[in-house]
Amino acid sequence: MTSINDDTDEVVTKLPIHYSNALSPNVHIHQFPLLTRPLQAPPSSLASGKRITARLKPNVRRLEIHVPSDTRPEVWNAEKAKELGAARLEDDREKNQETKGMKSVDETRLSEVRMKSEEIPQRGVHLLGVVRDGCLHLHPISETHQLRPALTYLDILSRKSKRSHGGFDSDSDDGPPPDPDDPAPLPVPRKEKKSTGEVKEIQVTARKSDDKNGLTGPGALSAVRREMLHAIRAEEDEEWEPLEFCDVVTAESGDAFEGVFSQTSDMLQCKTNIAAFLKEINGL
Amino acid sequence: MSSNDPPSGSTPKAIGSLAKKQSDVTRQGTQKLKFVPTLPQRRKKEEVKAEPTTSVVPAVPSTERGRGRGRGKGDGRGRGRGRGAAPPVLEMTASGPFAMGPALAGSTGRRSTPRSNFTPSVPTALGASAALGVNLSRSAAPSLKKENNADAKGKGKAMEEEGEVYSDPDDGVEIIDMERIRDMDWMAPESLQNERQLKKFKKEPSEGVAGEVDLAKALDLSESEEEEELEDIIEDFAAPTEIDTDPTLREERLYFFQFPQPFPTFLPKASESVADVIMGDATDKKVTFAPDVMPSVTPGTSRTSSAVPTELLMTEPLDGIIGELEVYRSGAVKIRLTNGILFDVSAGTQPSFLQQVTYLDKENKRLCVLGEVNKQFVVSPNVDTLLAAMEEADNAPVTIEGGENLIKMDG
């Protein structure tokens, strides 16, 4: 900002700032990096009764929002949807994500987009601000999630096609080149297949060598890899909790919105000196 | 009214089109909808034959109402393929959920919702006002009746574009503006933004894909960008009341503020000593304050000696006034906290994607969307104040700052 000469610069408006953390830590920001329009179910889906639904894994803080797709024949390929839906069902089964009770044929069709969340760390402190009645109300935002469509079922399809084609045709489906730490990509898929129904143990070979990179020995995994697999496994184990998705128009949403506002006009005393900001800068 | 012209077109305009020549009749034997995009230039007759770039199954249901359900769902304009003239025999009427216009599309404009980045800044005029700078039309098909199409389009265009008037379409000829394709259907592709439009909507910092920086304007942008942003900020804060004609439309915008670490800690009461803390309730408040700084009775919390400042934010219910936002004549916006900390507020990078603020209601297992984030702001400590405070701190004897109850980690 350009420095303003305070003598000549006058204050035009002053807005008192209210602060409230009444709804903490449950106010989140959801970013949809691949979406440039409001999150709505298409009207054709609304007409057929489908709504946006959501589910949550509270411990790992993973959220999924299911947005129904526009399945009009003009813009939707039904056969492909069946194919992909079957793949998704299989993918769910492999990862123990299968929603119980959804076995009807109808559900094996792909009819919704699953937006999967990824929590991103916050830089600085994020606050939500709303101007109302000449006051600015602030409320802290606890988590920031980015939601993108989850297309993991495509892996199933590519696996199938790879098998059928012998694996040489679908280069693009091979995924990233094998990790240099990992001696062979084989252990990982093997593990996943084993995992369905079995006790999920990490395939750790008993190796005396203490190398972090785990280069020696067949099927050895680096510690980092192991941790990642741990985390993935733990996440898969956790159950989904269904959530009711209330759009902005709903009354519940309105109530929640009102909860953001500060209710009182009491002055809060600030305990932090401005120099604290300098102290917080790493390396200064 | 409808004449079956041969595919070679009656009055082809020399407009470069990517159109493939197709027959006018669909597989099902009905007349195909014609897609006739317009040029952004004043032309007497805009009959351009082009094919929509998206691959849309041309199958059109045989009924007339089903027609409206075609690619241009509920869109009276319909879509055409191939040649210009032969109009469908059937009257294009809007049908489907979009038939009533954007009002029905989730009743976007008419609900008590906060303003969304994706609504047109002009109150939706039948959705004809489509691409606005970075904004996208909120609802897709404007679903105008065909005969009204030109009028509405003319109006819409006159409102927003500089002198782009399209002549009335001939019978059966669709005029579809390439920049307004987004309006045609829920699934219609996004139109790339046009430079011209960005000028009008400098309300939002433009980050349109196409044509944001014109070579001729390149220099200007860099200088005026800052001013533009400042103006924007003023508009956001200085207008104390938004003129809202519709009481149900929630006019409050949601702003996203990014404060530096650490967020200042606040205490509900000037509790110089712990003993003073009152387990007060809200009824206890007496607001007595001298100009600015005097804190007063709190909506009690008892834990003033909680540990880490960041946790303080989360665990202690705080509610009250922490400072003031000052808008200066020069356009600067500052936040002054009650103990003198001064922040500068500037506009942050506005994302072009959707950002929603949500509330996760754990007890009721609900995810409530509070609204879309309209504007991002970055708050940074005012450097002058910071340096002055540092000097003071250096000169003054070392005291434990703020010091009463907080356990501060040294260093």
UniProtKB/TrEMBL annotation, chain A:
InterPro entries: RNA_pol_III_Rpc5 (IPR006886)
Gene Ontology annotations of biological process type: tRNA transcription by RNA polymerase III
Superkingdom field: Eukaryota
Single GO cellular component term: RNA polymerase III complex
Keywords: DNA-directed RNA polymerase, Transcription
Pfam families in UniProt: RPC5 (PF04801)
Region (Disordered): 162-201
Residue ranges with Acidic residues bias: 170-182
Name the record gives this protein: DNA-directed RNA polymerase III subunit Rpc5
Organism lineage: Eukaryota, Fungi, Dikarya, Basidiomycota, Agaricomycotina
UniProtKB/TrEMBL annotation, chain B:
Acidic residues composition bias: residue spans: 161-170
Region of interest (Disordered), ranges: 1-124, 138-170
GO CC terms: RNA polymerase III complex
Extent of Polar residues compositional bias: 1-11, 109-122
Main location class: nucleus
Entry-linked InterPro entries: RPC4 (IPR007811)
Subcellular location per the Swiss-Prot or TrEMBL entry: Nucleus
Domain of life: Eukaryota
GO biological process, one term: tRNA transcription by RNA polymerase III
GO molecular function: DNA binding
Record key words, sorted: DNA-directed RNA polymerase, Nucleus, Transcription
Basic and acidic residues bias: start-end ranges: 64-78, 144-160
Name of the molecule in the record: RNA polymerase III RPC4-domain-containing protein
Organism: Crucibulum laeve
